[in-house]
Amino acid sequence: MNQYARLLIEAGPLAAFFIANSQAGIMIGTAVFMVATSISVLISWRFERKVPVMPVVGAGFVLLFGGLTLWLQDDLFIKIKPTLVNLLFASVLFAAHLTRRNVLKHVLGSVLNLSDAGWRTLAIRWAWFFLLLAALNEVVWRTMTTDAWVNFKVFGIMPLTLLFSAFQAPLILRHQVPEEQAEKTSAS
User: How many Cα atoms are found within 13 Å in the side-chain-facing hemisphere of 141?
Assistant: First the structure.
């Protein structure tokens, strides 16, 4: 699957959430988000024939916290979901770094060929970025209206993530390993 299709599949549930929230409120928006996220994961699986780890974890959180939101009729749960997901991702990356494992290489190794130093640096940068997103989410949902939070979730988090990813290009280029060398390293 190409990167544009992947972006559409990952951004689709957010767009559906935004539209449903603007038309019918946070409860309907949450229900639509849950369904759209489930469909997104199924489409990813259908085309890639493997379970995409991060989207599945994200979908699990959407279903859990979306379900709590709907069951208890309390939007707090859907609002804290991004905080908890980002804290989980940051914790996994920091813990992997401390134990000298590279989870990011495992997740993205089929897309990128980087030196071990490159993978370590990239993982630490992403861990700190996930912490930043968690903190931003906390500030926004605690200080703004629900509609403003939804706007931030759709029009803030995704662009920030894309911008952060783009800023990683120099690091990736600097630590890129030719494919032949990467194959030799993984075979040993």
Answer: 17
Q: How far is it, in rounded angstroms, from Cα 128 to Cα 28?
A: 33
pLDDT tens string 65-91: 999 999 999 999 999 999 999 999 999
Q: DSSP alpha helices (H): ranges in 109-145?
A: 116-143
3-state helix, strand, coil in the chain (%, to 5): 85, 0, 15
**Closest to 57 measured CA to CA, from 22, 20, 93, 21:** 93
Query: Does pLDDT of 158 surpass 90?
Result: no
Angle, nearest 10°, between helix axes 158-167 and 116-143? Answer: 160
In the block, tokens 């995704």 appear at: 158
Average pLDDT over residues 142-164: 94
How confident is the model over 165-179, as a mean pLDDT? 92
